[in-house]
Structures are given as structure tokens and as C-alpha cells.
Amino acid sequence: MKIRKNALAGIALAATAALGLAACGGSPAPAGSASPEATNGEITVYNAQHESLTKEWADAFTAETGIKVTLRQGSDTEMSNQIVQEGAASPADVFLTENSPAMAQVENAGLFADVNKDTIAQVPAEFRPTTGKWTGIAARSTVLVYDKAKLTADKLPKSMLDLAKPEWKGKWAASPSGADFQAIVSALLELKGEAATEAWLKGMKENFTAYKGNSTAMKAVNAGEVDAALIYHYYYYGDQAKTGENSKNVTPYYFKKQDPGAFVSVSGGGVLKSSKNADKAQAFLKFITGKKGQEVLQKGTSFEYAIASGVPANEKLVPVKELQAPAVDPAKLNSAKVTELMTKAGLL
Amino acid sequence: MTTQASAPEVSGRTTTAGRGKRPRPPFGVSAVAVLAVLIALFSLVPLGYVVFMTVATGWETAAALIFRERVGELLLNTVLLTVFTVPLCLVLGVGGAWLVERTTLPGHKVWAVLLAAPLAIPAFVNSYAWVSAVPSLQGLFSGVLIATLSYFPLVYIPAAATLGRLDPAIEQSAASLGLGAWRAFFRVVLPQLRIAMTGGALLVALHLLAEYGAFAMIRFDTFTTAIMVQYQSTFNGTAGNMLASVLVFFCLLLLLAEVRSRGTARYAKVGSGAQAKALRLPLHAYQMPAQLFLAALTALAFGLPLAFVLRWIMAGGAEIWAADELVPALLQTLGYGLGGALVTTVVAFPMAYLAVRHPGWFSKALELSNYITSSMPGIVVGLAFVTVSIRLVPEMYQTAGVLIAAYVLLFLPRALVNIRAGLAQAPKELDEAAQALGTPPLLAFIRVTLRLTAPAAAGGAALVFLAIVNELTATLLLSPNGTRTLATEFWTKSSEIDYAGAAPYALLMIVISAPMTYLLFQQSKKVAGQ
Description:
The complex is a heterodimer of chains A (348) and B (530).
Chain A: H1 2-26, H2 28-32, H3 34-38, E1 42-47, H4 51-65, E2 68-73, H5 76-86, E3 94-96, H6 100-108, H7 117-120, E4 135-147, E5 172-174, H8 179-192, H9 194-207, E6 208-210, H10 214-222, E7 228-232, H11 233-241, E8 250-253, E9 264-271, H12 278-289, H13 291-299, H14 335-344
Parallel strand pairs in A: 1-2, 1-3, 5-6, 5-7
Antiparallel strand pairs in A: 3-9, 4-7, 4-8, 4-9
Helix pairs in contact in A: 4-13, 5-6, 8-9, 8-14
Chain B: H1 2-5, H2 7-15, H3 29-43, H4 45-57, H5 59-66, H6 69-102, H7 108-116, H8 123-133, H9 139-151, H10 153-165, H11 168-176, H12 181-192, H13 194-210, H14 213-217, H15 223-234, H16 238-262, H17 287-316, H18 323-357, H19 361-375, H20 378-391, H21 400-424, H22 428-436, H23 441-470, H24 473-478, H25 486-495, H26 499-527
């Protein structure tokens, strides 16, 4: 009797498992077969931008052109390194990032095709590299968000470099693992050189508290866990536009005066040389830097800066011109060196 | 994938001629061994990757990246986490199992299910709930708390299954020889739990080493979280690979400890007649404390996470239920979970068979190779497969097959531990008796051993399913373009602190994990003959 019961259980399991196999054969298969189909009129986008923003772009693009867009989600330098490894076999047609260093890496590996001239024409020169291998698609500004109950205006740092000084020990937060923060460091490296960057990172390791993600760091300031956090501006405005639950006790502070902390980071987009759908990929890039694509930035919930096709930034934001950002050539930002220095400083 | 597909053929061919008079193994041991070696070799791909990368890096660079302060910090965190969490899980798991299976505790049938229930809650959902409840949670203490509450059922389930089917005659003999209840427990019962405990403890330790999401959310850095950070910055950069090699070294130590403590004792018995029902000890004055203990444990490990997921669901309202995002994620999760569980169970069988029926350095070495792989974080296995598939088998790159293969390698021990325990309790003498009565070896094997092992295999498959549903890092890396599982979507949303938006995914993960957890519970009951 006992054996029979066990056997029944075994059969039940086998049935469940068989069902599972059927389900398995059923659902992942279409996803797996997406790449061969892609050659017939779909594009694959390696997306390191916020998923919600790119999804909005992709949906609008598909609605207008009928071209289906498949997204693969990742982070900036993860995907740039992945593309470099994939080389000519990369399934990606388009690569979108949050920051420039990852674009520079793919460009340096010689994997980008030239961006079409009419796309370039839509983007002002300060938001794209001179090489024309990729283009800016949006921008974001560095900001220090702080807890007004803990810091008064006179105690705020004059420069981002001050955060490495002893008086800031235990008082500020950042997300060192994120591409955003690493882009800020890459700007520092470009502006002040290796020795100064190394010293600043060493002070940072002493002083700061690591959080995973800019929104988490801002939430910690809001909850009174830490006085300030070095993040990008749109986390603050995005939360304010929603419930303000994670930013109601938080005030943004812009360093301005061409300080490294006033760095405005350019999000990039490029078409892979290996793309088998180059025309469609170029069309996608043209679309997101065009009027409709930029209006998604202006009117949507991303709160990133619109930069191209004459579309103004969201009216709630401080205009780019007032940010007094330092001049940095986005093509010169070096992600590998930044990772190396941050690893050396024990931040990664 | 082709190796396990050919398994039945190989075994079939070698056995049709085996209608001998003397009992013999159901299929040629060599066939099983060849199969097991192939699987083991395949499972060594990720380790090979790490070793290759370390060697390719060169000693000087490697040393600079390994012997640095940050690695020391990570090492300390990882060691402390393991040292605190594993014993806690053993105490809670075995203690809970004993209360439920061997005492007259009222409501023990309900408690038996509730103690397994936390398995249906992924560790990173648990972490998310705790962070919602106590936002200031961070660091070692929080890591131990969340890991213990998430993983003690990994000890509880095998311990309860073993306790439930222990022959009370052994304890009666102990009692007749003058041992009291406590001493009988420690001297007679506990040694019988050895396989369940060492296996469970190893599983817990491996989870601790591989977990990413739960610790990332409370800002507790381990090797795995640090490798993930390196990965996000450099893909498969050198520094990440070196951290992985330290982690692998750490795993090797754990594995050695497990193999040593497993021992060589035999746990099967040739039954003569029906086994008596297990004895239940009256608790008397300890009843209330026991009830309170179980209530508190269940409330913290299951009640709290469920309550906070529901809280976010209420807070989020209707807008968080986007069917066009939820349904595909649900279907893909189910597909990968069930498919992966089936393949893993089939692949685990030859390994378990060799380990139990032909123990020795050979079978231990084979099993070890799997444990090494499975102890590596999903991120490393993912990275190895990305690199290997794109360089050697580009037609497999970013296909579902590669992801399933990674799941098999990652979760093989979950199936293996269970099947091995099941086989250990299925005496080969029964197989031999059936053969002596004229049943062909393969048929005898299917009718006797396979049937007796089926519940344990089902338990193993359920564990694998649960693990796949909760898997995050390898899934992120290896899934075909456009694939989204419940786990990856939950992680994306909760990382952007959209806790309400993440809640439906958490709830769905719990809901589809629940039946498997219940199946596990059912199996332990059936094995116990109740």
C-alpha cells in the first residue's frame, strides 16, 4: 500500500513536470526565436537607460513605424563590456545608456556605425562627440540632495571636492556601484587628473555611506539616516511628481560655477556596426532625438533633460544654461580607468 | 542538454541482456558512471572559466586584486554571516521538526505546513518586506536575521522527513537500555539526522554565498554582492573574476567540511514487518513555550513578509496590476521553473545513484564537482555561460537552453541531496530480492528503487522549482532578449524603490511557489507513511 501511494505521488510529479516542459517549450521559445526574426523588421535595443523611459520611446516608435522593439535591460558599462565581448556577433542593433563613458568604450572598440547625418543635425554639438559615432539622447545633472533639518545653507560644500574633507565624515551618501556616480567620477578624472581623483576617492571611502541606487540614497536622506547624498537631479523631481514620499524632507543643491559637481552627463545612443537592421536602428535613433522623442522627456515622468530638436526641458527643472556645468567632451570619459581607481580605493 | 536526453537509451541497452540469476545492478555501473562524468565535466565549465580567467590574469595582477583591504572586509562579512546563520538554521530547523514530528504538540499538523511555508517567500522579497517594516535595517545583524528566516526550512524539511520515518524501535531500544528522552534524542535520533542536517546546512551555506538581492537591499556586502557590483561596472572584468576565485576557494572549504561530516554510516534498514508509528513525546509544561516559539517564528518568517507585500498591494491600488506586463512574466517564470526542475531532477539521478550505491572517492569527486558549481553565485555561472556560448557555441547564445543549463548546474545539489537521502533509505537488498524472484534488473529498479525514491525526487524537484522562481542574477544575464521573469521585474521595480509596483510580482512569486512548498510537505508526510 505504501509503495502504491508513493508511486502515485511520483506519477503526479511526472505529470506536473511534463506540464512544465510543455509550458517551457511554449513560452521561452518565442523569446528565443526573436533574434532570427529581428532580421526581418524588428530591432533589439540594449538598454541601460531607465526601462520605463525607453519603453515609452519604443512604444511610440512602434506605433509610428510598425517596427517592433525588443529591449534587453542592463547597466551602462555592463552592457558596453558585453557588446565588446559579443563583437561582430552582437544581437544588439541599438545601444542606449544613461551616461557617456560606456558609449566611449564601445566607440573605442570600433563597434559603432556612423550616426546618420539628419540625426546629428538634430542634436546641438555640446551634447554629442565630435566623432559622430554616437549621439546624446538626453542629459542629467549632478546634484547634492540634503536634509534641511540637518544642514543650513552656509554649511553646504562650495565644491564637490569638499566632500572628501574630514568635516564631512559620516555625513553623505552615494551609490558607487551605479553608472551615474561612476560618470561623475569620470568627469572629475577628466577635469582634475588622476592624482586628484585618487585622493578624492580615498577621502570618500573614509567619509561616505554606500547605498545601492540613487533613489535609495535619496530615501536615506529623506529618512534622516544621512545628511546629504550625491546623486542626479531627476530622482528628486520624479519622486516629487509622484507622492513625494521619499523626498519630502529633501532639498536639491546645485554646485554650479563649473565645479566637477556641476557635471551634466550626456546619455548616449548609437547604432552597432554589426546591426543587420541598420536602417531601422538609425530610424529609431532619429526618432528619439527628434521632436516626438524629446517631448517624451519634456512631458513624461523621467525628468531627464531634453537636449535635441529644440525641445525645451521640463518646466519644473532648472534650465541647463543655469547649471553652469564644466565643459567636458563626452567622448573622452574613461570608464575603465574609473573602475580601476574605484576598485583601488576599495569602493567596488 | 543532449547528455540527459540519451540517458534512458544507454541504460536500456545495457540491461536488456541482464536477466541473470545472480542479483546485479539494474544497469551497467559503467554506463551510469560515464553519464555522471559527462554531467560533471559539463558542470565544471563555470569553474574552468574562473580558473582560466585567473591564470590568464597573471599572478601579479591577480594578487593585487585579491590581497587588498576590500577583500578582507568581504571575507569577514561572509564568514560571520555563515558562522551565525548556519547554526541558527540548524537549531530552528531541527528543533521545529522535532516539535512537529515527535511531540504531542496540539496543532502539529498545521505547524508542520507553516514551518515549511517561508520557503515560498523568496529571500529578496523577505528582505524587501523587512526593509519596509524597519527601514533602518542594514549590515550583519540584518543579514543574519533575514537569511535565517528565509533558509531555516531548508534544514527543517529534510529533518522533518527523516524524523517522520525513523523507526521508533531504535528509540525504544535506547529507552529499554536506560536512556531518558533527551539523551535518547541526542544519542540515537540526532545521529540518524546526520545526512539531513549536513545536507541542509550545506544548502543554507551555499545560499548564503550565492544570495544577491536580499543582501543588496539591506546594504550588507558579501562576495556575491561585490561581484555583482563589479559585473555591473565591467561585465566580466578581472576584479570581479578574482573575487569569484576567492569565493570558489571559500566554497571548497565548506564542501570539504560537509563531505567529512557526512560520514560513512549506513542508514537503510531491511524491514521485517510493518514499522510502528513514530513515538510522540508529551510536552507537559513546555507546551506553551513551544507554541509561542513556533508562533513567533512563523510570524517573523512568513506572516511579516506576507503582511507587507499585501500592504504595498493595498497602497498601490489598481494601477499596479498591468496585465500586459504581469502575465508574460508569470508564464515565463512558470515555464522556466517547471522545465528546469524536470531536467535537473533527471540529471541528478545518476549522481545520486553512484553516491549511495557505489560510494567511494570517485562518486564523491563527481558530486563535489557539482557542489563547486552550485556554490558559485548565479552571476559567475551566468558570466561563464555568456562567455563560453558566445565564443564556442554562438548559435546557443541568449537562448532559453543556455539559461536552463545554468539552472541545472546551479540547482543540481538541491535535487541531489534529496534523491540521495531517498536512495539511502531504499535498501538495495529489496532490489536484489526482486531480481532474485525473477524480475529483470531494470524493471526491479523501476518497481522498487525508483518508486521508493520518487517522493524524495519530487521533494528535490520542488526545491529546484522554488530556486528557479527566485533566481535573479543568472536570469538577468542569460535570458533571451525581451525575457522578463517575476524575479527580474520585482528586482527592477524594488531597486527604483517602486515598492508598490513590485508588490504584485512578489505576490505572484509567493502564489506559484506555495503549491510546490505544499508538495514538499505532502511528500514528507507520505514518506512517513501517514
